Amino acid sequence: MASRSSILTFLVCTALLAVLFGAADAQGLRVGFYKKTCPKAETIVRETVAGFVAKDATVAAPLLRLHFHDCFVRGCDGSVLLNSTKGRLAEKDAMPNLSLDGFYVIDAAKAAVEVACPGVVSCADIVALAARDGVELINGPSWRVKTGRRDGRVSSASEAVANLPSSFGEIAELKAIFARKGLSAEDLAVLSGSHTIGNAHCNAFSKRLYNFTGKGDRDPSLAPAYARKLRSQCPRGDETSIVEMDPGRAVSFDTSYYARVVNGKGLFHSDAALLRDKVTRDLVYQYTGSASKFFRDFGVAMGKMGSIGVLTGARGEIRRHCALVNA
Predict the structure, then answer these.
(1) How many whole angstroms separate alpha carbon 301 and alpha carbon 22?
(2) How many Cα atoms within 13 Å fall on the side-chain side of residue 236?
C-alpha cells in the first residue's frame, strides 16, 4: 500500500498539473483572435446584442449571468449552453440554473456569425463577448475580451450544483469557491457588483424573510423595512414571482448596489456576507463612493474570470449549434 507521503505527493502534483494546464490554455487566448479568420465576428456579436438590448434592456443581466455560470462550471467552455441528453442532465437544467435566460441572444449571434464564417467562432467566445457588450450597452464598463476559447463537449447538472456559489452562502464559503477558480476576495467583492442589474426569483432569498434559522425568523442582517417590502412582493411559499435586485435601477449598471449592501438592503444573504470580511467590506465601501474604481476593477475581474479553465488549441471543438455537440 502506498505511504501517506506518496499519496500526498501524488495529489499535490495532480493539482499542480491542473493549474499549469489551465494557465497554458489561458495563454492561448488573445485580443483579436479572429482578426484574420473572421474579422467581423466581434462586430456581428455586438450588433446582435445591441438589437436585443434596444428592444429590452433587461436582457443585459442574463447575458452577464450566463458568462458567470459558464465559467464557474468546467471553465469558460460554453457548456452551460448544451441541452440535456438521454441519461445526462445538463448544466442548464440544474436547480441553480433553471432561471437562466438569454440563450436566444447567443443563438442569434451564433447563427449570424456562422453565415459570415462557418465553423470558426466558438459559442464560448460569443458568451464572453455578449456579456461585455450587454453591460456596455446599458452604460456600464467595457473591457478587452480575449478570445480563442473552444467549446466543451460535456455538461453536467451535478457539477453545476457543486461549483456555483449559493445566494445563501457565508463569506468563508464564498471565498473558498472563488479561490478554487483562481479568483481572490477582491474579485468576489467586485463581481458581486453585477447584482446591480437584473431580477431574482423569490426562492433565491425567501428563507431570509420567513425561516432564516429554521425557527420562522428573519435574517437579522436584512433591514426591517426592506424585509417588509420583500414580504409584500413575495408572500410565503411564492417561488415564482421576481423582484429587481437593485430596485428601480435594474437596467442601470452603477454603484448603487454597494450602497444598498451597506444599508442592509442587499437582496441575497451572500450580498450581506461581504460585510463580514475586512477585504470585501473595505471594497464595498470604496465602490460606494467611486464608480470609476468599480468600473475599472470590474473589467479586470471579468478578464480573470473569462480565462478560467478555457479550452484552446486542439482541445474542445467549435460547435455548429450552441446547444448541441458536433456529431
Answers:
(1) 17
(2) 6
For 236-268, write each residue's pLDDT tens digit: 999 889 999 999 999 999 999 999 999 999 999
Residues annotated within the binding site are: 70, 73, 75, 77, 79, 91, 165, 195-196, 246, 254
Residue ending a domain, among 163, 196, 226, is 163
Q: Which domain holds residue 187?
A: 171-302
Angle between helices 41-55 and 103-116 (to 10 degrees): 140
- Whole-angstrom distance, CA of residue 94 vs CA of residue 103: 15
We report the CATH number of the domain holding residue 241 as: 1.10.420.10
Enzyme catalytic residues: 69
* Binding-site residues for heme b: 195
- Domain assignment present for 14: no
Q: Answer yes or no: do 179 and 159 share one domain.
A: no
Instruction: Kindly state whether residues 180 and 156 are assigned to the same domain.
Output: no
pLDDT score of 90 more than 70:
yes
